[in-house]
Design goal:
Length: 307
């Protein structure tokens, strides 16, 4: 039967989360997180969650929106993802075309999309006028079998380990740290990280964020490094962001944060840990390799002019 593309409905949340998990098993998605993404989208993003349906079954999705927090206007994103069991019916092309038309109408001039680093997906992107810009590596750590490093018996003077849960009364220090760390991340789209309320709504309140597993390293009482942990509430753990503030880099604080976070997650029953890093982010790739993470997949970011 014919594939159709339509907008997401709340009753689709379970099917969308299953489809997205099947497409990218290195990330986490739950029905609650899918609903959260739609319900809290900033109006400036012109966000649409598109779903592809065939025979009454959701077989693919695409998150499409404007990068409203970018310092350069007209930047947009859309990545079609089709369930591995339902490819070859034209769903990916229809999802992407629908997203392109929507974003162009909203003023987009450059559209960024990810494609897995394999011949089929790369050819799909090239045939539609997209050119590669950078790569990112997904990595996996078997928490059930890997020997994790132990925490030092004594921390350096002034250094303490906390969790993000300790900042629930006032998360602004976490916002400041996240803003500085994100500013130094390799990226195609520059971000103006200055809207605290927007950050609280989309990052701090994200239902996937496990504040108890998200470790914060302080020096002299101030946030110096952190790692944000996302989980599915069961066995899957994903590193959302690990960063060290510029004044404290080179002291091993990122390793300390990740060690504490991974130990907490394993003790709570997590068995699979995932992370992803830009191919140009040598320091974090080195740290993750030291922990025992192994690259399990690579995706390539592409861009094309629209409008």
């Amino acid at each position: 039967m014919t594939v159709i593309v339509r907008d997401f409905r709340p009753e689709d949340a379970e099917a969308v989360s299953r489809s997205r998990q099947a497409c990218i098993p290195f990330q986490v998605a739950t029905p609650r997180s899918v609903l959260f993404d739609v319900e809290t989208a900033n109006p400036a993003a012109k966000f649409r969650l598109l779903v592809a349906e065939r025979n009454g079954e959701i077989i693919g999705t695409a998150y499409a929106g404007i990068a409203y927090d970018s310092s350069e206007p007209g930047q947009a994103y859309a990545t079609p993802q089709v369930h591995p069991d339902h490819r070859g019916h034209g769903a990916g092309g229809l999802l992407l075309r629908t997203a392109e038309e929507h974003l162009a109408a909203e003023g987009a001039t450059s559209l960024y999309a990810w494609a897995m680093d394999d011949p089929t997906n790369l050819a799909f992107a090239a045939e539609r006028g997209y050119r590669p810009t950078r790569s990112s590596h997904f990595q996996r750590l078997d928490l059930a079998r890997t020997d994790l490093p132990e925490l030092p018996g004594t921390l350096p003077p002034g250094v303490e380990l906390r969790t993000a849960a300790d900042y629930e009364a006032d998360p602004r220090p976490m916002f400041v740290a996240d803003a500085e760390a994100t500013a130094d991340e390799p990226s195609d789209i520059a971000t103006d990280f200055d809207d605290y309320e927007d950050w609280v709504r989309h990052t701090w309140d994200n239902p996937l964020l496990d504040r108890g597993f998200s470790t914060v390293v302080t020096v002299g009482g101030e946030v110096a490094a952190f790692t944000a942990a996302f989980t599915d509430g069961a066995t899957r753990y994903v590193s959302g962001m690990t960063g060290t503030l510029r004044a404290h880099r080179g002291r091993g604080l990122a390793k300390l944060a990740k060690t504490d976070s991974l130990l907490r997650a394993r003790a709570a029953g997590c068995t699979d840990a995932y992370t992803s890093n830009d191919g140009a982010n040598g320091p974090m790739l080195t740290i993750n390799k030291w922990f025992g993470y192994e690259i399990c997949a690579t995706e390539v970011r592409h861009v094309r002019t629209v409008g």
